[in-house]
Design brief:
204 residues; mainly alpha; D-Maltodextrin-Binding Protein, domain 2; 2 domains; three-stranded parallel beta sheet; 59% helix; 5% strand
Amino acid sequence: MFLYVAYSAYILVLLQSTTPITSIHDLVDSRIECGGLNVSFYEAYYKTTKDNDLKNLYQKKLSGRYFSMEKGLDTVREGNFAFHVGLGAAYNYILKKFSNYDICKLQELPGYLNDKLYVGVLKSSPYKKIFKVGLLKVHESGLETRTKHRLTRKPKCYNEAGNFQSVRIYDCQSIFILYCIGVLLSLIVLVTENITAKYHEIQP
């Protein structure tokens, strides 16, 4: 009974003191598995980036782990998984498929891919300045931001206080290890007692 109460208190403290993941560095050092959207330029970006945290993320957790958006986000919903995907498409899928409980469990890391609008033109193109001025007007007038907000509405969490954080299996691993050690010691004691009893029976 004492062991049960003490370990329950330990789990409660563990859940309350869990260090939040706020950066790519924290994600690399965590036990969370990672994956990325199956598009070619994501992998090219990771291979050419000069950011050490992103390089470590690719080498340790992302290399070869690419999924469709549906598969990746469904795995995120199951827990203990981070998925690199564009926010617009992800928001739309989450709004359609995720419950409020699932949305409240989500965490979003700051983006590290530039999502500003660009138009590719020849270096000596006479349209270069026209596009530059036009895109600046779109950005400065707020039209770009307004369009993003209309097309990609971020899912909101309602009644977050009513949701509970579940205890994961590796949060309880120490009690299972302790249990296995206890079982092993019990078997050793049992075998020792049987050998001792048979020895005394043989003795005249």
